[in-house]
Amino acid sequence: MIKENLKRGIFSENPIFVLLLGLCPSLAVSTSLVNGIGMGLAATFVLTCSNVIISMIKRLIPDKVRIPCYIVVIATFVTIVQLLMKAYLPALDKQLGIFVPLIVVNCIILGRAEAYASKNNVFKSFIDGIAIGLGFTVSLSVLSIIREVLGSNKLFGLKVIPSFNPMAVFILAPGGFFTIALVMMLIRYYSNRKKV
């Protein structure tokens, strides 16, 4: 069960490349691998913890106020992540800026709370949070590697390809859209070849 859920979160229900969710932070923070991994791990923590709590209290929440209650739960974990980042990773917190607090309204997290955690038990919701969060982190990492190498010829601050002139467009939003489209095209091409 765990293996299937992880496969689903990374491949068949990948938040960015399949479901096309969370594109705003994906475009904004995937200009460097450190930012991509940091944002992915922060979102994974919030997603997993909020899934568990929502699954635990789902019967106590009246239908009319379900979404506001979910947002309060999510906002609590976002605040924890933001305070921890400010205390222990101030440089990363500064780089990610407003996109950490915006995790509260990230459609991936709110969507999983509504579609999965509110309908399943705590263990399944925990595994779903890990799987979808891992899929988001992997997606951000792939985007970040491509954009950082092509846009600045660096990875973790080190030069990657000697005598390569970086293409600054990859660090900008159009380069982000182009990179997402390129990766999605490769995924679809590979998926279609596997079926034949």
Structural account:
It is a single chain. The protein is mostly helical and 196 residues long. It has one domain. It is built from eight helices and two strands. It has a two-stranded antiparallel sheet with strand order 1-2. Helix 1 (2-12) runs parallel beside helix 7 (122-152). The longest helix has 31 residues, at 122-152. The radius of gyration is 18 Å and the shape is globular. The mean pLDDT is 91.
The span between the termini is 27 Å
Question: Average pLDDT across residues?
Answer: 91
Overall 3D geometry? globular
Q: Total number of helical segments? A: 8
- Give me the side-by-side strand order of the main sheet: 1-2
What is the SS-derived class?
A: mainly alpha
| Overall number of strands | 2
Portion of residues in beta strands equals under 5%
Rg for CA atoms: 18 Å
Helical amount among residues, as a percent range? over 70%
The biggest beta sheet reads:
2 strands, antiparallel
What is the element string, with H for helices and E for strands?
HHHHHHHEEH
Indicate how many domains the architecture comprises: 1
